[in-house]
Task: structure prediction
Amino acid sequence: MSGTLVLVRHGQSEWNLKNLFTGWKDPDLTELGVKEATAGGKALAETGIKFDIAFTSALTRAQHTCKLVLDEVGQPDLETIRDEALNERDYGDLAGLNKDDARKKWGEEQVHIWRRSYDVPPPGGESLKDTGARVWPYYMTDILPRVLRGEKVLVAAHGNSLRAMVMVLDRMTKEEILKLNLATGVPMVYTLKADSTVAEKKILGDMSGAH
Result:
């Protein structure tokens, strides 16, 4: 009995547009972000999928994306579980800062290390490893068992919380995961085997807009 796990990164947010570090701050989607999430939902609707449950983070941009996707697949009232475990990586003192201003303050190299290293957190924030440390247990205890029971599960979350899950699913090294950028609003559809490994992975939509 194979279940299906669909991961969707939220559409463009107001702070993505302004080139700000967002983290646990809570801006909503831009007009483009709404279009991206809606397009992802339409792509899923074309597959005919019907979900048993949805998971999202405690942040508006992911919840809004989740709702838009569910509207498109014709399941606006589906049970949706919201949890901080799926929140974006916490950028600490960088949150709310323009990325260019942060580079002026701390230097290009230091900011690059915070953004792209695996285990070096920004001041007061989380590294990708720290983000994984809260995402992985939640995935193992709350999300994965449902998929293994044969359910179809939607997760609408964030670039870094989803990278932590993709790292496990695609068996990526920490070097490989650092190079992975997930496109906004583009569904990744995983079919899992009974031993929780991946039987099939499909990415729905155009990947040329990945960033």
In short: The beta strands are 4-9, 53-56, 80-82, 152-157, 188-192, 198-203. The CA atoms of residues 113 and 120 lie 7 Å apart.
